[in-house]
């Protein structure tokens, strides 16, 4: 590749990786704080896309407001799911928690997929663009859709706001405390029920924001969350389960790997390369390349 192609690869990788990071942070957060391997995470990406579609196309909302509304509605749905399903399970199931929640999230995934089919059918629901037009980068003729660029900056803003929230607010510090030592946090007065609900809801909101941002590129349909879920797990396995801050870097790494694979070998090879690297990580460094668990480790 010449220098202009390298530039194209880098820009594409950064734009793709930013949204991977947003998805992966939500998945890593709920694992790091609640020890839940959430296999319904992709379905919150999906409902975020649906919420944004209806807000933008049906109610004629501003693009930014549509994306924010999608995130807020997913936050509410996530809080309801945690209170109605995970909280009762926590009260009754102390043993085999990880396996039980894994099975529960699979059930939630199936229910959400089929619930969407029942409500809105299997028809693809997309939009032409939030912000029509393309941006030309450099002198090499590379053009990027406005939606992809704005979506990346929304992801950056959401990640920055989340890091600020964890570092600078009392509730954020409580979330970090619970991720490090749940019993100790409880002893000093942290409300575990509130923290668990908030954590799960925030995780769902971040997934929904990613789905809403990419609506013009990936239209809403019931099983659209499967691929983003796989990408999020690629990131978590790569950097270490529950390591929230490293998930930001991991999303960019996965975006770079996929983009280079696509440019070098063609369509379809990006998943092959990613899976090969994940297998090697599991074989030789199963704790991930950063190997630290906890929300605290991610933002300091």
Automatic annotation (TrEMBL):
Its main location: membrane. It comes from the Bacteria. Pfam families: BPD_transp_2. One of its GO terms (cellular component) is plasma membrane. The chain crosses the membrane at residues 20-37, 67-85, 97-116, 149-166, 200-221, 233-255, 262-284. PANTHER family: AMINO ACID ABC TRANSPORTER PERMEASE PROTEIN, BRANCHED-CHAIN AMINO ACID TRANSPORT SYSTEM PERMEASE PROTEIN LIVH. This is Branched-chain amino acid ABC transporter permease. One of its GO terms (biological process) is amino acid transport. It comes from Formimonas warabiya. One of its GO terms (molecular function) is transmembrane transporter activity. Belongs to the binding-protein-dependent transport system permease family. LivHM subfamily. Keywords: Amino-acid transport, Cell membrane, Membrane, Transmembrane, Transmembrane helix, Transport. It is a multi-pass membrane protein. It is found in: Cell membrane. InterPro entries: ABC_transp_permease, BCAA_transport_permease.
């Amino acid at each position: 590749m010449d220098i202009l192609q390298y530039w194209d690869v880098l820009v594409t990788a950064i734009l793709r990786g930013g949204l991977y990071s947003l998805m992966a942070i939500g998945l890593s957060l709920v694992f790091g704080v609640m020890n839940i391997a959430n296999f319904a995470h992709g379905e919150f990406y999906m409902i975020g896309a649906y919420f944004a579609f209806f807000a933008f196309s049906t109610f004629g909302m501003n693009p930014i407001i549509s994306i924010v509304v999608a995130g807020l509605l997913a936050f509410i749905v996530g809080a309801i799911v945690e209170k109605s399903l995970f909280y009762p399970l926590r009260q009754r199931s102390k043993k085999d928690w990880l396996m039980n929640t894994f099975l529960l999230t699979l059930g939630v995934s199936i229910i959400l997929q089929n619930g969407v089919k029942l409500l809105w059918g299997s028809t693809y629901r997309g939009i032409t663009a939030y912000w029509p037009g393309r941006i030309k980068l450099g002198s090499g003729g590379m053009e990027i859709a406005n939606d992809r660029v704005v979506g990346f900056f929304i992801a950056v803003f959401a990640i920055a706001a989340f890091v600020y929230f964890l570092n600078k607010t009392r509730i954020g510090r409580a979330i970090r405390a619970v991720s490090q030592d749940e019993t100790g946090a409880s002893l000093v007065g942290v409300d575990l029920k509130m923290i668990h609900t908030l954590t799960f809801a925030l995780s769902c909101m971040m997934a929904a924001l990613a789905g809403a941002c990419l609506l013009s590129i990936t239209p809403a349909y019931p099983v659209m969350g499967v691929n983003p879920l796989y990408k999020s797990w690629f990131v978590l396995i790569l950097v270490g389960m529950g390591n929230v801050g490293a998930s930001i870097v991991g999303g960019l790494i996965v975006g770079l790997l996929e983009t280079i694979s696509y440019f070098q070998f063609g369509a379809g090879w990006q998943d092959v390369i990613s899976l090969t690297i994940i297998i090697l990580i599991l074989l030789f460094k199963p704790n991930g390349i950063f190997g630290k668990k906890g929300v605290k480790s991610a933002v300091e």
